[in-house]
Amino acid sequence: MPTILSKLAHWRPFNALVVGDFMLDQLVYGDAERLTADAPVPVLAVRRTEQIPGGAANVCMDLAALHANVRAIGVTGADPEANLLRNELAKSGVDPSGLIADAQRPTTVKRNLIGLAQHRHPQKMFRVDYESREPVPEAIVARMLAAFDSALQWADVVAIEDYAKGACTEEVCQAVIRRARAAGKEVLIDPALTRDYTRYRGATAITPNRTEAELATGIRTHDNADAAHNRSLAHKLVDTLNLDAVVLTLDKHGAMLLERNAEPVTIPTVARQVYDVTGAGDMVLAAMMAARANNFDWEESVRFANAAAGLEVEIFGVKPIPFERVHQSMIAELRKQFGKQRTTDEAAVEAAAARREGKRVVFTNGCFDIIHAGHISLLQKARALGDMLIVGVNSDDSIRRLKGQDRPVHAERDRVTVLGALEPVDVIVVFSDDTPISLIQTIKPDILVKGADYTKDRVVGGDLVESWGGRVELVELLEGRSTTRSIDRIRAR
Q: Which of 62-72 are b and which e, b meaning 16 or more Cβ less than 10 Å from the residue's Cβ?
């Protein structure tokens, strides 16, 4: 199992400091089913309005959903929208005390008009922006940096989210980068769509999309850019900005990671139904921060960010994706890639992660030499008792000791392959002892399942499971089905 699963299982809360352009997204939903009588213009019959944090504020919300403690550093207006933005952040556990009110500018507001047909299929029709793009004045910069300095030692990781709304001036960016790097903190940046990236010089990493990278480097190409083109973009950014790494996001093609003095790595995205790409860049930044704060290496961090952003684009609008959902998605994809077999320690890690999410872990065991309907029935019933089924499988040597030298009929590799193809089975562990007692003690299942041909006092490990609050379940078996009987029938022919 890749080390990334172990790191996910040991995920811990962390402290994140976000500097950037904070804004409020207003979502005006309505029915758009007719045109005006005097012009070919859609009419939006407004039904409801939502107001949610956007821009750097959305990064904060994403981080909070990934178990971060978050402090926000930026500028707002001195208006009702600023109060609403602060309140929405605070409700999600984000500390907004570093947002400086400037009475000379409005809080950035993006009003999105969203039409529905027959009350469904929301689509953005139009957007109205209320904003100032003027650089924040020196007095505001000084207050922002003072707030940053007071939070820097507390932070595990720092981010700059630049939407070119005036907060991320070169003075602000360079001060944040220098001070954070001097304090041993990584600085990750989601850059603005601009030709001048000098303000980001010396950061740890940046996460531009290909369009942003082409504008900043002056390297242009056609729509179907190849890997060589992407490498050129990434190398130029790393070299000219003195970065540790660049994560070049490539839309449906995933992302390219280039670390300094290393070969680039292209990490494909998981195929998903893309509904709305809004917020995907914010999610990439937040997920990268979260992964780096949890000691993921760069490639692992990009894989985590890819998974999180993939979940984000499946939904309409911007909504934080909980860590638990990203974790589940990654486990599912890695099982497809690496199969269901685990070592004892790896299975214990997955079981512990499942329990932390409130899931019930079920365990059963057997030889599973010739799979028959009785096995399928038992596995289905076992899986129905909980949320995760771990199956212990006797090794070839173990079966020979228990059943004789003419068994097993099928080698353990084949038995594991067949079990792995069965939907009820989540994890498979091969054990070489005569009993699974050591495996049970390590995994600590909530429910131990055996067939009703046992009595509870004969179930190996039953007393252990009950000692930590679990239980033993005996399930009815299909009459007349057994591997031994199948072998006898075959031999009789």
A: bbbbbbbbbbb
**Residue 152 vs residues 181, 182, 186: alpha-carbon distances, Å:** 10, 11, 11
Q: Please state the pTM of the whole predicted model.
A: 0.81
The reply to whether 282 belongs to the active site is: yes
> Per residue, what are the HEC states of 202-254?
CCCEECCEHHHHHHHHCCCCCCCCCHHHHHHHHHHHHHHHCCCEEEEECHHHC
Q: Taking a C-beta distance cutoff of 8 angstroms, is the pair 278, 240 a contact?
A: no
- Alpha carbon 475 to its chain's center: 37
Name the E strands within 36-152. 42-55, 68-77, 94-102, 108-117, 120-130
Instruction: Return the residue matching tokens 């029915």.
Output: 31
**Peptide linkage before 408 cis (omega within 30 of 0):** yes
- Token reading at 316: 């309409």
How much of the chain is helix, strand and coil, in % rounded to 5?
Answer: 40, 25, 35
Distances (CA, A) of 442 to 176, 238, 429, 462: 46, 45, 12, 14
Single-letter amino acid, residue 113 = L
CB 419 within 8 A of CB 368: yes
Query: Within the chain, how many helices (H) and strands (E) appear?
Result: 17, 18
Q: What is the pLDDT along the chain (493 residues), one digit of tens a residue?
A: 457 877 888 899 999 999 999 999 999 989 888 899 888 989 988 999 999 999 999 999 999 999 999 999 999 999 999 999 999 999 999 999 999 999 999 999 999 998 988 777 788 889 999 999 999 999 999 999 999 999 999 999 999 999 999 999 999 999 999 999 999 999 999 999 999 999 999 999 999 998 999 999 998 866 566 788 888 999 999 999 999 999 999 877 789 999 999 999 998 876 555 444 566 889 999 999 999 999 999 999 999 998 888 887 766 667 888 998 898 888 878 777 778 999 898 889 889 888 888 899 999 999 998 888 888 999 999 999 999 999 999 999 998 998 888 788 889 999 999 999 999 999 999 999 999 999 999 999 999 999 888 888 889 999 999 999 999 999 988 775 665 566 656 666 6
Task: Name the helix (H) or strand (E) containing 473.
Answer: strand 471-475
Cα separation, 448 vs 450, whole angstroms = 7
Of these residues, 156, 282, 369, 446, which one is catalytic? 282
User: Domains of the chain by range and CATH?
Assistant: 3-18+53-81+135-337 (3.40.1190.20), 341-492 (3.40.50.620)
For 343-446, list the strands marked E by DSSP: 361-366, 388-394, 427-431
Half-sphere exposure of 337 (CA within 13 A, CB side): 11
